[in-house]
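[SOLVED] Need 3D model of a two-part complex

Original post:
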Amino acid sequence: MVNITINGRQIKTEEGKTLLDAARKNNIYIPTLCANEEVSPYGACRLCLVEIKTAKGRERLVTSCIYLVEEGLTVQTDTDRIKKIRKMLLELLLARCPDSEEIQKMAKEAGVEKTRFVEQEGNNKCILCANCSRTCEEVVGVAAISLAQRGVEREIVTPFNEDFADACIGCGSCAYSCPTGAITMTDVKGKRIIKWPHNTMDFKLKKCSVCGQYWAPEKQIKYIAKKSGTPLSDYDKCPDCRD
Amino acid sequence: MAKLKSPSELETLRSSIIQKRDPNKPCITICNGTGCQSYGGKALTESFRNEIKKQNLESKVDIRVTGCHGFCERGPLVIIKPTEILYQRVRIKDVPEIVSETAVNNKVIERMLYTDKASNQKIASEKDVPFYKLQKRLIFGNNGLIDPTSIEDYLAVGGYTALTKAIKMTPENVIEEVKKSGLRGRGGAGFPTGSKWESTRNAEGDVKYVICNADEGDPGAFMDRSLAEGNPHSVLEGMVIGAYAIGSHEGFIYIRNEYPLAVRNMTTAIEQAEANGLLGDNILGSGFSFKIKIKRGGGAFVCGESTALMASLEGRVGEPRAKYIHTSEQGLWGKPSNLNNVETWANIPLIISKGADWYSQIGTTGSKGTKIFALTGNITNSGLVEVPMGIKLREIIFDIGGGIPKGRKFKAVQTGGPSGGMLPENMLDLSVDFDELTKAGSMMGSGGMIVMDEKTCMVDMARYYTTFLEGESCGKCVPCREGLRQMKYILDGITQGRGKEGDIELLEELCATLLDASLCQLGQSAPNPVLSSIKYFRDEYEAHIKEKKCPSGVCKIG
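Solution:
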């Protein structure tokens, strides 16, 4: 176990944990957008920056979602300097995604009413945190979408930016992991429609042989059957109608 | 060529190479660095070959095709040995005369000599030209003496002597020597090289990697290119010594694909070193083995950042990661790795050969040795200059660089590439030193030095660099991607006459966020051009914003 101090509170925490983990476990709030415990730390949104002082006395700003706890660390999560950085980051994000309710909410909480910067057009809610593509690759294991281009041109797209991605199984993990609602998923009339910022794809849903409800994309079922080595016939019924 | 099995076999080979050479035999040395090649150096070289054949002088006059000499402004450069006569801006029509008069009869042809502007005197010898005379060309000097595709040339000037010395030392002693020399990384950050090596050596793991960063991407900078093109063996020798000290058996040179000549010459050098037993298995019979592979970069500026470079080496997208886990512990493919820049590696043979005590006498307390700068912009003598650390900016720009052309006045100098600061005239007596430059709001960087005259608009320059950096930001973290986008909008506005009250303060606020919150050095150093130009040339910003006027007449306002 490691002893650290966060905002004056002495905390005992497991070795190998990140500062963000340690803070959350002790109900200390640090705002984040790109942090997702299901995938490896990324450090892109920078909202989780905190001020630290090491046991040796070195002071610096670190990304709490990546920085690991160490003995004798003193952490401040809400200093004036940190607040100022977060406000500016949210102001920048507000200019990028003026229509994202999540960003508006976070900005308001940080005390930002409106942005002084040029707002981007096109109702784009994507902040490029890559939660979707990282989940798709690391959790689902299919890597059907990816970041392309660089800098301000960067975008999350399907291969070759086409409304078709052979690898995509339609599971919708990208939509679940998106913090800003930039990716949406709707099931209508036996079809699942997933909308990314620049692409839209639809997937045929499977009907339950008992209750007749549509319950999962056929492509996803095939993928699960193959991964688990079970026969496709095991998936005729939806989970609710199984014995 | 048979593999050399011991240091003594290398010395025997070296002696036989030197013995076969007559130091008094005329040799026409032609610069074929990329700069001189673009002036027609290749055709000029062919013309010299044909002329020597035509005049039946093949046994009497040698030709040596070398890498960049640095005096790019006056290329193509031709030097006749042993008299050291320097001809500049040589044309094909001059070739017959140079061969028959100078090479054969030692007669100087006045019209091709360099004229010193200050004294209006023609100077015959290369070493008397002020551009060269005031430099200290320890690393770069051999470029003019060797054909980069000839390992014999490198051996003839003492090449691989440092390696033989190093493998007789313990790895710890080699590291100690590098630490004692005070060498700091030439890639920009200035981290002490010896300490880096030591951490990598002490890191746990059997597999360790040594990497050479040859992804030079600063606009106007070409020191690493010229070293890799003109003296590739010096880089390899440094890497072998480093690998020996660290305990690594595999190395990579990450070199940008836009440097085809550097890729070619480096590849040739690796093949030659392997064929001679200076690289590969059981180097010089020492039992130590080390291999080097070349990986070509795809042209992203951010891949010069060490963690992005390693991601690219691994075949992933070139994006930086946080450096809380040190490269020396978990670098390439998660193994302990040591990454140094081309120029840093090229310093190593010199330190080992001449010793840390000798090396550390050059430079300042905190910055030792020499540094190569790419002197460009509004400067009379643009080219590559190697100077001792501690030299004043004024000496580089006015004494070596020959000052500002067209009778104009100096306005600013930017050191450290696109994310360096722009320093005004009253900072010209600043010493070239890692810490001094940082204190002044600029940085050493990898060695770009761009001189600007009075006709330059500093706001426009800040806009230019911000646009460059916005385009090269990888886009991973919010402050760098979105911050640079907004900084560019504001600067576009100011230079187009749409500037408004509060713009300067907003820029400063954005800069502070980039400095504090960016993930890597690209974003953390990106504010330098804007902050330094606001600090030293605030009046120009104010003139654009308040009076809607560009004092230098560059920006089209109204």
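Edit: The domain at 2-78 of chain A is CATH 3.10.20.740 (Ubiquitin-like (UB roll)).
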